[in-house]
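Continuing the batch. This is chain 6 of the set; chains 1 through 5 are on the previous pages. Same settings as before, nothing changed between runs. Recording input and output for traceability.
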Amino acid sequence: MNSSTFVSESITQTPPIVWTIAGSDSGGGAGIQADLLTMQNLSCHGCSVITTLTAQNSISVSLVETVSESMLLAQFSSLLVDLPPVAIKIGLLVSQAQVDILADCLAQMRATQKMVPFVVLDPVMVASSGANFNSIDLDFSSLIGLIDLITPNQHELKHLCSQYALAQDCADVGNKVAQQQQMICDAKLLSDIFQCHVLAKGGDAQWQQQLAIDVYVSKSVKGASLAHSHAVFMLSSQRIATTNHHGSGCTLSSAIACFIAHNFVIHDAIVLAKAYVNKGLTLGVSLGQGPGVLARTGWPDDLGMMPSIKLVSSEHLVDDSCEQAPLNGFKVLHQSLGIYPVLDDLRILKNVLQAGCKTAQYRAKLAANTDERQRLTLEANIIEAINLGREYHAQLFINDHWQLAIKHGAFGVHLGQEDMVTADLTAIAATGMALGLSSHSYFEALLAHQCSPSYIALGHIFATTTKQMPSAPQGLSKLKRYASLFARHYPTVAIGGIDLSNLELIADTGVGDAAVVRAVATAEEPAKAYRALHHKWLQLTRPLAKACSPQEGV
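Output for chain 6:
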């Protein structure tokens, strides 16, 4: 199966159910219609609870008619009995009664349902044509504690903050930095008020000029790195010069709900939805006399459409540590990683190098209360590992200990996400070393990509006992999607629970290479285990090797 076929398929066998609770756009560009198009395009089954009927086209809204309270409740109840959702997107609500009815329904759902859906609120207030949907200000406070993410644009962000707190407009409207800091303050304020994640959109922020910058405020995120929970990020993309943007906010929020339904963490769902909207805007179509509509372009597989990610400090300053790669760059790998053993035993490392292994990693950990004797032992072991790599002409990577790797001239260093932030990447690049970076999600792989490493590790694919992981096993479907996005740009290596029994499944995903830990480290004969893995990988991934005999392949 080729990657273009794969990206149109659902990541699960049965399409997950996603609800949209929103208004009907008779012009088809936004609202329920845009949501259902997006859900279908992203392999979800969309269900709708219609709040409002609008008579509109691309130019204007001529009539807004609210559905009855009994009809709103009946739609919700009917779906819940037979088609319970994994995720819900809430869009246009036009009366306080609708807000309160939904709050009661969501509260009851949380109390009675085994599976609690992820809820996205897009607080729609004004149409793309400029029409105001609400004659009164709605109080969304009854939804506090019942929604997981709120996605206001700049107008909505300001309105909500002024409604619930003593927010003030930025005094220096001509100062881009001041405007940016105000946007961050407002997004954090809204997150605190609603006790949820916030994605404050910057598409309508004129001060941003050539960039479209969103502010993402995250709360606790199960399955993500601790460094990325309770954090603030700026997500930036080049502003796309188009008038075909009708329904972009609806599309973004419903796309986030879809990616959540496919079991991606919210960090991933947001960057994927951003890429989906960016490509939709790029290929948008003009149909009427007013703003056109977004294209529906399938699962994102274009790295150029992904946003850049910057961590914002507590002082609202941007951390540019991985905004771009160091000027010197990292060593380019001139041979594939192949079967890539990750080992903490020097004896086994020597055995696999003698068996012909040309890429390996020495991973030795130190406890927090390590004494000087243990540090000296570690340094001696790293020196020996580096020397073994040179002796056998292998690409030998040192895990974590980048200062010692620099000091003793290692071929390369491998860093995790937390170490990537604290390590001196410029110093590593200045030595001409190679750099490998770990990732456990789209979001983390994008952070790695911004550093332009020598390779990106994707994991953990299967359950592993070699180390505690905050993330769940990624599985083969996710690995295939990661590979389709990154493998054209970097050497990619899968890691986590890989052995001879599942190696063919790993090869079928299109990932470049495979790292192994227990499959070699705990084998009775590590060198023999390595050779078996190496030969099978060659048979699976190198066409010429398939024609070789077993002896020739090894």
